[in-house]
Amino acid sequence: MQQLFKPNKAFAKDARIKNMCEYEELAEWAKEDYEGFWEHFAKEKLDWIKPFENVLDESNAPFVKWFDGGKLNVATQCIDRHLDSRKNKAAIIFEGDRGDKQIITYLELYYNVNRFANLLKNEFNVKKGDRVVIYMPMIPEAAYAMLACARIGAIHSVVFGGFSAEALRDRIEDADAKVVITADGAYRKGKPYMLKPVVDKALEENTPIEKVLVVQRNFEDIEWVSGRDYSYNELITSQAPVCEAEAMESEDPLFLLYTSGSTGKPKGVQHSQAGYILWAQMTMEWVFDVKENDTYWCTADIGWITGHTYIVYGPLAMGATTVMFEGVPTYPDAGRAWKMVEEYKINQFYTAPTAIRVLHKMGEDEPKKYDLNSLKVLGTVGEPIDPPAWRWYYEVVGNSQCSIVDTYWQTETGGHIISPIASATPIKPACATLPLPGIMAEILDPETGEKVEVGQKGYMCVTRPWPSQIRNVWGDEQRYKKSYYGDVKKDGKAVYFTGDGAVYDENGYITITGRTDDVINVSGHRLGTAEIEAAIKKHSNVAEVAVVGKPHDIKGEAIFAYVVLKSDNGVADEVEELKAINNTIKQEIGNIALCDDIIFAPGLPKTRSGKIMRRILRSLAKGEAITQDISTLEDPSIVAKLEALIQS
Ligand code: PRX
Prior knowledge:
It is built from 20 helices and 32 strands. A hairpin with a 3-residue loop joins strand 30 (542-552) and strand 31 (556-565). The structure holds adenosine-5'-monophosphate-propyl ester.
């Protein structure tokens, strides 16, 4: 049996959940009285404008309603209710790429968000239910923009700043958004970069966008389209400092966040108001045990769900101090992150395995140069962490004193679903451990719907609806049902399937084994192979393409593409062709989807019915010998040809 690392005793002593008995009590309570459990916390944690009448309505499952009849406002949960006790407390500590710093108190946040809300409402006529796209760097105004939308009931859709104009336009169109909030640019690795030109390009074609609000961050020269583009810096000063918060129904959409699935078109994951904010707050409190005077830092980008739930909504809902960082943890050197931990006396540090691997590689002993004694909890998210990286994080960064919370969740789950509780759960390397209390997560056999035995791989499922879960795929109910409730049935009832495989160990702990579908995870960024294939196909010389993931030391997975060029054109110049394909990907999706390997293949391994055998392509990309039966392929000789090409 593998060694388990127990939580630090001094830390656990004053925690909200002090030990596994307390964990069990909560988990049992939820099992015994599911609705009572959630009713209790919804009443205890949230401030209701109008109390809810019903806890859970499953009558139209998988379209569920939580806390129906209730009204609240998420921005007031995150700001107004803290003003009595925390108005001068730091809500956001911002550090820019070049080391510039800003501390925003809860009172300042209140006025900044209110003014922003008034700007959207009065200057741009944004109303409850309207969609607003936020395409922003990691600056405080990005958080203000999200909260301003929440305050007036507009639905925000944050698009990661690394996405291309095409990707941005697709998301604008799918959401039918009327406003884009962006910045002229920002700073990265000491240099200014631009965002606004990407927005301009996205809006070259006809889109539903009426207005663009531009936060001037780096004051580089940009184009201004008269009547469409407005400077935030100019408009904000004249806005009234208070804007009444809209009373939102529990189930009104709070935001959309597009994520990759198994088709070429990203899905607009739709989240609710009450259920989402409740679980964002509860998981912040339980998993990280953030205390009143703690300083918490999550290094994610607000363009992803981690940035939504664990930089903005979760920490602010509980009244914590959250650090927002514009830069990268390796600039100007490998000590940047550790220097910030020392300087701000960070208590909880939450990052991605890719960042841990990079920092490890760049400076094995770098953390020892800094005083990291303030750290109590270390977190990881977004992809599997390998045991060596985990051990370095535990021993060197955490000095064997901090729990590591390997938090497993997804854009669709809104918040953590399987994770250690830092103060209670004994941990082991690279293991998400146990479902959080209230989350009925089980690894099921997809054939029988039964819980799998220890050591047997199965599908990671959640068998009951939970408050922070996805409510719909924006505008596509069928896709919602098919994507999440189409694969696994337990006792004859469709259950939520995450798309991940998982396995139990002898402690009942859960280890996530990775996606079972065609989604790949590059540096914690989720990308659909179909999406990348669709982008590559836009290059005029491409006849066919298949994309697979290949293990990568730092990024976890890298993108490997097999491209069949149009026969009459042939491969005139491979280097040029490679460049052109990567340029197409850049234009269609962005740099995050660039391929590490592109092989110009004479054909793809297909069955006689024309199905591409991706398993073979994955094995070949890994350099594995092909042992499976290939006689069913239309042209079995293709396998040896591809093998030779890869080896050459
Ligand atoms: O495959 C799982 C992986 O990331 C996927 C979700 O990606 P996304 O929606 O972009 O959200 C990332 C941030 C929550 C999952 O389906 N994943 C996430 N966390 C872990 C993980 N894989 C292993 N261990 C984790 N802790």
